[in-house]
Design brief:
This protein has twelve helices and four strands, in the order H-H-H-E-H-H-E-H-H-E-H-E-H-H-H-H. The chain has a four-stranded antiparallel β-sheet, with helices on both faces. The termini are far apart. It is of the alpha+beta class. It has three domains: 32 residues, no CATH class; 162 residues, NADH Oxidase (3-Layer(aba) Sandwich); 75 residues, no CATH class. The radius of gyration is 20 Å and the shape is globular.
């Protein structure tokens, strides 16, 4: 799908606006994004991993501190172990490449120690937030690059269900945290994935000041759109977006162990002062 009008309609479940901006391949790639959960086992061409990392390193990074790293997993046994730690998601085992993106403060600690300098600022929450943002920006650049090469991707946040076990499996030093994983491979053409509609821009785009109450109409409209999408795609999702989202935040149990995140981060060497 390359038609701008069709892409916008797929992204919002309707045609949201008319744009006079000249279309380009980058916009096509970005608006075509979809999560792929079924992959071929075909290997990636040589140099693909390195090109994805070059794209990742081209993302913005706070103060050029570059507080992220990534572990590339190609070993089948290790992918199977990570799949178990991430709610047994089968696509982790299918892909030829699984990337674990890390908030990494260990490298800066090492650099400061090597110069005989203190690194007290790394003990504060701001440094962890910076590292997490850096990792997310880098990963999204890699995702866009992968999709431009005809590859499919899906993020795996379920690694945070068992971050200490992931850290042990990957031999992560203190002050390094696995933020999420990323599957990278060729989509299985027998299991097509559709572009999932997002909230209307009137719910997420605020001009000058934030307006919460005015989102009600947009959310109600989106609930109708997403219900139609679930039906069309034969997805077994009960209710609409509001109901589904509310259920995901209704109880501590819904966090699947992530309610202990601060404790786990402390155990992994993050003081979060």
């Amino acid at each position: 799908m390359t038609n701008p009008t069709e892409l916008l309609r797929s992204r919002y479940g309707e045609t949201p606006f008319n744009s006079e901006i000249e279309w380009n391949d980058s916009l096509t790639s970005l608006l075509s994004h979809r999560s792929i959960r079924s992959y071929l086992s075909d290997p990636l061409p040589p140099g693909t991993l390195e090109l994805l990392i070059a794209a990742a390193q081209s993302a913005s990074t706070s103060s050029n501190l570059q507080t992220w790293s990534v572990v590339a997993i190609e070993d089948q046994e290790r992918k199977e172990e990570l799949s178990k730690l991430a709610s047994n998601q089968a696509h982790i085992k299918q892909v030829p490449l699984f990337l674990v993106w890390l908030a990494d403060l260990a490298r800066l600690s090492y650099v400061a120690d090597s110069r005989g300098l203190s690194h007290d600022a790394l003990e504060y929450l701001e440094s962890f937030v910076t590292a997490t943002i850096d990792a997310a920006l880098a990963a999204q650049n890699a995702t866009v690059a992968a999709e431009s090469l005809g590859l499919g991707t899906v993020y795996i946040g379920a690694l945070r269900n068992h971050p200490q076990e992931v850290a042990a499996l990957l031999n992560l030093p203190p002050s390094v945290f696995p933020v999420f994983g990323l599957c990278v491979g060729y989509p299985n053409p027998e299991v097509p994935a559709a572009i999932k509609p997002r909230l209307p821009q009137t719910a997420v785009l605020h001009r000058e000041t934030y307006k919460l109450a005015e989102q009600e109409e947009a959310i109600a409209h989106y609930n109708d759109i997403i219900k139609d999408f679930y039906t069309e795609q034969k997805m077994n999702v009960a209710g609409d977006w509001s109901e589904h989202s509310a259920q995901r935040i209704a109880t501590v149990e819904a966090l699947r162990g992530r309610d202990r995140l601060r404790e786990i981060l402390n155990n992994l060497g993050f003081k979060l002062l």
